[in-house]
Design a protein that fits this description.
By secondary structure, this protein is α+β, with helices and mostly antiparallel strands. It has a domain of 51 residues. The chain has one helix and three strands. A three-stranded antiparallel sheet has the order 1-2-3, with no helix packed on it. A hairpin with a 2-residue loop joins strand 1 and strand 2. It is elongated. The mean pLDDT is 89.
Length: 74
């Protein structure tokens, strides 16, 4: 893990596969840091708790069989 020290208003840049994401420290209040993200819309940025919930839901849903799904009555 790379650990950097930044102050309010300063940024870091992350380049992935030729695309650049800028992360800016927008505010610091006590032990809370507000981050701003600027980059391509193709980047999916999520809080860790949301990412883990989504990952768990995707894993659970991948174990479905066709009989687990509702049928469409015409």
């Amino acid at each position: 893990m790379l650990v950097l020290t930044r102050s309010k208003g300063q940024s870091v840049f992350v380049e992935i596969a030729g695309q650049v994401l800028e992360i800016t420290i927008s505010d610091v209040r006590g032990d809370k840091v507000r981050l701003g993200f600027a980059g391509p819309l193709s980047f999916d940025i999520s809080r860790s708790e949301h990412y883990e919930r989504t990952k768990t839901a995707n894993i659970e849903s991948s174990h479905l069989t066709p009989k687990d799904l509702p049928t469409l009555d015409k």
